[in-house]
Amino acid sequence: VEAPGGQGLSLSPLLEMPNDFGQIYLGQTFSSYITLWNHTAYKARTVSLSAELATGGNRQRPLKDQQNAHSQTSCPAPASTHPMEVLGPGKNMPMVVKNMLNEVGWHTLNVIVSYVDPRSGHRRDFRKYYRFEVKNPVKVNLKHLAVRGDSFVEAQFENLTAAPMLLKAITFCPTAG
């Protein structure tokens, strides 16, 4: 799309996230503040912002906007923020996403933006992808020992994180026999 003077005009697909999310472990909650800024001098129309989390198992989950979720019992907004009729110059559209990480491996945060270009009237869409790895925080080794008809199980737990860890409870559930 060309603006007066031949300069391109569009909402920028430049979305910033850290190059390295640091160490992320199974059981942690991934949270991110996402905001879309209109840095142009024009009003964008019918603007929507949404996010999905794709896991290593190829499952894709829409992420709900949590910015108005004040308690555990409140219902978060739908996966896509309600489209703004107009996103004026210098204005932003924020979104807060959270998701419990319950799968080890590579994950991809997909951010999707859709809007009607103010100059051409055409619908425009763009996506940005941010990859990060979720690691297992604990390594468990089990040994089975049989001594004079008795069975013993030895469990070794190794903290794979850089921080101290406190195990609050360990439950042993033997199989029948």
Account of the 3D structure:
By secondary structure, this protein is mainly beta. The protein is about 0% helix and about 45% strand. It has no helices and 10 strands. The strands form 3 sheets. Strands 1, 3, 4, 5, 7 and 8 form a 6-stranded mixed beta sheet that branches. Strands 2-6 form a two-stranded antiparallel ribbon. A two-stranded antiparallel ribbon has the order 9-10. A hairpin with a 2-residue loop joins strand 9 and strand 10.
Which secondary structure elements does this structure contain, and how are they paired or packed?
Blueprint: E1 24-25, E2 29-37, E3 44-54, E4 60-63, E5 84-87, E6 92-100, E7 105-116, E8 123-135, E9 138-147, E10 150-159
Parallel strand pairs: 1-8
Antiparallel strand pairs: 2-6, 3-4, 3-5, 3-7, 7-8, 9-10
Q: What are the key terms here?
A:
177 residues, mainly beta, six-stranded mixed β-sheet, two-stranded antiparallel ribbon, 10 strands, disordered N terminus
Can you describe this structure in just a few lines?
This protein is mostly beta strands. 0% of the residues lie in helices and 47% in strands.
